[in-house]
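User: I'm curious what two different proteins look like when written out as structure tokens. Can you demonstrate?

Assistant: Sure. I'll show them one after the other, since each token string lines up with its own sequence. Here's the first protein:
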Amino acid sequence: MESANWTASVTEFILLGLSAHPKLEKMFFVLILSMYLVILLGNGVLILVTISDSHLHTPMYFFLGNLSFLDICYTTSSVPLILDSFLTPRKTIPFSACAVQMFLSFAMGATECVLLGMMAFDRYVAICNPLRYPVVMSKAAYLPMAASSWAAGSVASIVQTSLAMRLPFCGNNIINHFTCEILAVLKLACADISNNVISMGVTNVIFLGIPVLFIFVSYIFILTTILRIPSAEGRRKAFSTCSAHLTVVVVFYGTILFMYGKPKSKDPLGAGKQDLSDKLISLFYGVVTPMLNPIIYSLRNKDVKAALRNLVSQKIFTQWCLENRCPCSSVPIGCFHPPISKERVPQRRHM
């Protein structure tokens, strides 16, 4: 009977998650749900601002809107599954649903790596070659750049997901993770995964190594150019245009390097504690980083803060005009004062 079960193909996976720590599940459910709502609100508002405010119709904010949309897609592909695993005693996911979730998560992660590199190039041109910026970063240039980021991430995800899900899974179907993370799934295969390992290595070089190197070189030129600016005020303004992007890059890649680069513990007791810490770090990478992106860009960017104030004030005046039947309610920008009633208008005396 056991041999029959072992040779049967797997039709579903069991997500282990925090099953070994049931006391943490309810606490993390509330915490992750709150963070997810903040992600939807923060990134949604950022997308709305970049679309509605004409002053933000520039390449930098176009890429920022793409990044916000990407963060919403990335978290939506995994957070609902994580929240469900905190509430259900048996945390199962069908084989096909696991493949879809794996594809979406990998595609969004790979796309973000390329997109951050594109944003670094945008900042390089803006600071190091400001006179050529309108020509180099024209609409005909930055639209294909963003599209190629999404296409590259999707193609890489299709390749990796198809290679992983074609492997035979013949018994052990327990994924020691919150989601169908590709490395955790590969450990369950009952066949040689050397081709998958080589393919993953090449993909990591393309989507992690090359963008990191490109961003690093870009910021060397950016910092060199900023240091050549004679005035302190000029240096501060120049650095403020790229500080938010640099912060996001450090948080994003720093978490990845810490998560996959630290050594594994060989002690069984230490391995159990490390297993929990690895899961929490991956949770940080998947939830906290997308939550921080709109906060970083909002707090460190005067243009975004000004656009937010304009959007809020415009909504307030529009609502006021609608409630008070303001004659200029169709043009809320011009409706800053309540209409003067006829009784209060002084009558002109006839001579």
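Here's a second, unrelated protein for contrast:
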Amino acid sequence: MVTRTVDLRSDTVTKPTEAMRAAMASADVDDDVLGADPTAQRFEEEMARIMGKEAALFVPSGTMGNLISVLVHCEIRGSEVIMGDNSHIHVYENGGIATIGGVHPKTVENNPDGTMDIDRIEAAIRHPNGALYYPTTRLICLENTHANCGGRCISADYTDRVGELARKHGLKLHIDGARIFNASVALGVPVHRLVQSADSVSVCMSKGLGAPVGSVIVGTKEFITKAKRLRKTLGGGMRQIGVLCAAAFVALRENVVKLEDDHRKAKIFADGLKEIKQFRVSASSVETNMVFFDIVDPSVISPESLCATLEKFGVLAMPTSSTSLRVVIHFQISEGDIHYALTCIKQAIQEAVAVGIAK
């Protein structure tokens, strides 16, 4: 019988802390659709201040936050947005910018560190002379940290260069900053500096920060006014959201300081995997709370089989391809959990190898 659970599938699996539950229970609330929820107002004002932007808006999810942001910047159907081919918006958000907004994605190859080559971004911008034939470029999207590239951090300098390019061509810049606080901690750069060149940013409160629900988008007052209307259109206008914002407030106050330890534990995990010859992992690429690793010979054990075996020990992980897996560390994973998971992985591999030899 499994007596221990170590959930490494994502940092979205955290449970609300007692402090969050207490804050939710005692939150001062009112109708936010009517603009009257005091806790939501205070939280949005604080997020805008921290991010260095004029205003902020609480939304139910990061996917909605990104969708709203793209649609505000691309108000005309048939607009085009340049984004990484491995970005979360392009891969995992259900094609919403196209199906709902009529916005065309123009992808540029993501480098292993999550960036896109500046010259390739510029080359992807449509020339006005081709307006009769092509979509009109209106937006560039970056992702920081970049999840599919292993939680890699995007520097302020790189973001500034993309921002300069956007302004040169009259475009806007949006940052999918679901884990922007992880990047801030890892780089040692204030979060407002990382997004200084951006016209809008989405920030997830329910990933590394550990709140139960919600994201925030920030930008100018004019941008947020339009975003609020779109939030209502998309069904994201909620009433007494102070209950949720109260938990997010606690996450912001108590859990940002824990991210550095999450990153430390991720490196411990990566170092442990390096000792298992059946795996290939680049510990130097582990910059934040994510560890991606490859199985050298999937014929011995596949990612799906490994995850199924680990689940019997109470260790939950996630395949990312036919040869690779991902684990994500969060503040409710202890160093002891890390060592337990590594022990279970070694045992699973040993059993798989033994079965292979027996065959």
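A detail about the second structure: The two ends are 28 Å apart (CA to CA).
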